[in-house]
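thread from #wetlab-drylab

HS: before we spend reagent money on co-crystallization trials with NAP, can we at least see a predicted complex? here's what I'd submit
DV: go for it
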Amino acid sequence: MSKIAMTTPLVEMDGDEMTRILWKMIKDELLTPFIDLKTEYYDLGLKYRDETDDQVTVDAANAIMKYKVGVKCATITPNPARVTEYGLKKMWKSPNGTLRAMLDGTVFRCPIVVKGIEPCVRNWKKPITIARHAYGDVYKNTEIRVPGKGKAKLVFEAEDGTVTEKTIFDFESAGIIQGIYNIDPSIESFARSCFQYALDLKQDLWFATKDTISKTYDRDFKEIFERVYADEFKEKFEKAGITYFYTLIDDAVARIMKCEGGIVWACKNYDGDVFSDMLSSAFGSLAMMTSVLVSPKGYYEYEAAHGTVQKHYYKYLKGEETSTNSVATIFAWTGALRKRGELDNLPELSAFADKLEKATLDTIESGTMTGDLTRITTLPNPKKVNSLEFIQAIRANLEKML
Ligand code: NAP
Ligand code: MG
């Protein structure tokens, strides 16, 4: 059988720990035997980020702007413990934060639904897609540790020299301050991509902020969404028979638990970070969720929504068996390959992505799965396999299909 050809490379971003191990297994077992895989490789593993003073992350983002499609393995975001563990020069910023700041856009995350893994919220009948704004807010904050008594101010100097100044707080004791920002063009493109995504899926769009408390910052988000909706999407939504629904974030959280799913939920950056983990674990497992960053300029970056699965990696290093779920990482690859196929007009490549996804889901539905799923499945007598066996079982199903 001849291998499927590619014309434009994918931007491949390798990562850390257990997901780095899975990355190689997926390439060796599920991709390179079938595709003449073309990638431009960037090693975002922490060691190489440190060696290059994190330049490799910036280079990868630039490559995505050049080639339009990237696929990323989970990476360590260093904290003080990691600085010691890896002897880092510096506590480097989150690579996802760097990529998102450079590419802008919205992260869409959707649970991967299979028979035998039921959501623990009984009334969720259909998947819920989270659309997470991926720019600014707390991820680009500036913080000060206040040593003691003093005045904190918020100051803006306009280009023409006009100064706007407000007192934040008169400190009588030690404390903390945080400054965050966002920009209207990014919020606008966030709104636009959410409305467009909901329209593509023919699903209602929900959006929520805390504008009752944050009367300028969050209200800006609310008003921009209203304006983009009225100017560009209202008629299209009505024609498609779907609705745009705005509410307060606490109300949205309460209603999400009672809805039957099948909606797109637009979230500010932090809300999306937190609630996508809640949704994915309630739908089954962190490893059963797709994640794609869609930038307004037409760049796509596919990744898994979970981390590097550190605990499993330490077991792996000790030579113990691991049963780590590779589904989200496989779906990052299939998402990227399918998009590459669409952009380069290579239907065979897109069809391969569909088949690999089907082979993956068939494997689980036939009862072969990793430990995170055997613990929760409703299928009788599931077979727990190790990380490599799971990928090999998918390969066997895939070979039958090709
Ligand atoms: P994590 O890697 O998501 O894992 C947390 C726990 O969730 C695991 O211990 C495991 O539970 C379960 N889990 C997650 N993914 C799984 C999978 N594929 N298969 C089976 N079980 C899975 O989070 P973490 O351990 O808190 O973070 C580790 C590192 O990941 C951190 O350095 C963090 O900075 C980084 N991180 C990266 C990204 C990213 O690159 N997108 C996102 C989040 C975190 P059990 O131990 O119970 O089996
Ligand atoms: Mg998170």
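DV: Residues 273, 277 surround magnesium ion (ligand 2) (CB under 6 Å).
HS: ok that's useful, forwarding to the group
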